[in-house]
Amino acid sequence: MESGIYGKVLNAIGIYTKGILHNGSHMINLFNFLFGNVYNFHPLSGRVDWSEDDPTLDAYLEYSNGTKAHVIGADEDAIVFLTSIYYVRSRDSVSVNLDTK
What we know:
Blueprint: E1 8-16, H1 20-35, E2 38-51, E3 54-63, E4 68-73, E5 81-89, E6 92-99
Parallel strand pairs: 1-4
Antiparallel strand pairs: 1-5, 2-3, 3-4, 5-6
């Protein structure tokens, strides 16, 4: 990513299940590894998916390098972890999907 071979990262979307602490934290840690530190975190909505003590949140994250990311909570029966990262290179776009189901 740092080499810019695919272009500039525009957006990232991560879908997870089983709570922001249980699985969502891994999604956010992956994005932090790839894009640096979050400088703005905006929770959008939440639901109980797996545990009353660990809500599954939808959130919008902004990174200091300009990348914007959405984490989306889903039903645990549907998926476990799905990530898409969108790049732009000139007028072309590239999508990288990392599906773990």
